Amino acid sequence: MADPIYLDYNATTPVAPEVVEAMLPFLREHFGNPSSAHPYGARAAKAIAQARRELAGLLGAQSEEIVFTGCATEANNLALRGVAQALRHKGRHIVTSSIEHPSVATPLQWLRSEGWDVTALPVDKFGCVLPENLKRALRDDTVLVSIMHANNEVGTIEPIAEFAAIAHARGALFHADAAQSVGKIPVDAGALGVDLLTVAGHKLYAPKGIGALYVRRGTPLHPVLMGAGQEGGLRPGTENVPHIVALGAAADLARRRLPEFAHRVRALRDRLHARLTEGFPELQLHGHPQHRLPNTLHVSFPGLDGRRLLDEAPEIAASVGSACHEGGEAVSGVLAAMALSDSEARGAVRLSLGIPTKEDDIDRAAALLIRAARGLQRR
Ligand code: PLP
Prior knowledge:
With 379 residues, this protein is of the alpha/beta class. The chain has helices at residues 17-28, 39-59, 72-87, 102-113, 131-137, 160-169, 189-192, 241-279, 306-312, 333-337, 342-346, 359-378, and strands spanning 5-6, 66-69, 93-97, 117-121, 142-146, 173-177, 196-200, 211-215, 284-286, 296-300, 316-317, 319-320, 322-325, 328-331, 348-352. The mean pLDDT is 96. It has 2 domains: 5-13 and 258-378, Aspartate Aminotransferase, domain 1 (Alpha-Beta Complex); 17-254, Aspartate Aminotransferase, domain 2 (3-Layer(aba) Sandwich). It is globular and about 70 Å long. The strands form 4 sheets. Strands 2-8-7-6-5-3-4 form a 7-stranded mixed sheet, with helices on both faces. Pyridoxal-5'-phosphate (PLP) is lined by residues 71-73, 101, 103, 148, 152, 177, 179-180, 200, 202.
């Protein structure tokens, strides 16, 4: 059987050919340790400096505001635990949303066990946090607000610039997990006004095992790992040069081609939505109808089970809207926070498109899903 049609780009992307080309010399011949004071080291250090400029260029940041990490999970941990450690004498209250990725929610859960007070704001039916709820939650002892830029499941984009301004007006720092938005929509950390912003390499056509944290100059932050002084002391450990080079190349590619990518992917995503609605008029869209990632289509087939639907269409590789836990299927926390009924949530599938997606993939995927849905209804 041919490879299934890949519609799971929010889970991970392939590595772009340009990115592979950029990193290969640093796997093959340029193996130096960037801290070494000889030409091998200097070459590696120069490549890292270039990658830092490239990522800073994509994010509207200064090079020295970029800290490379091992993944987005690590960047989120560094932001949350690093600020908590640095500001623990100022206050012990953090505000977040109820739809964060586990790499934000779990460190915050841990901080709770360490005596921190964490307020998780609700979302509306589109997955949006309301600015008035954020204003109400802020207190004199709030040191940090962490709200994701775009949601990984439904794709809803939060008004981060407005939230950062609200947080700053009450003296709190603002962190945005932008793992899903960087490379899909313009993300300018300076214009957004955030203090900290998380990047995931493997969601923007770089390999897995590389991420970054934007740290606005002057932001109080303690390292989570202790060691030597790499990455300004914030992320000690000998740098992963090939992957850092890859993230720089992916950022450069995104900076040059993002408007074209976004336009094309949005048109394909809307075509998929239209095809599915033609064949299955009961289809329900989840996430914000407009303020949503251009590649993400999260829909439910009411009365059907998303997992069974995808099982019936093995020619498609996508995700379901529920998470599998020991002892059965649980409704995703994001969908529950958006107050979807159990049956709507169980019927949900997440179809996420990417740069390699073709029109033919979309038309075939739509036909296969409609056939599978109608087949399940007849049973
Ligand atoms: N944040 C969001 C919104 C994500 O979607 C993901 C990955 O799915 C992460 C953080 C964590 O990324 P990684 O697993 O690469 O650390």
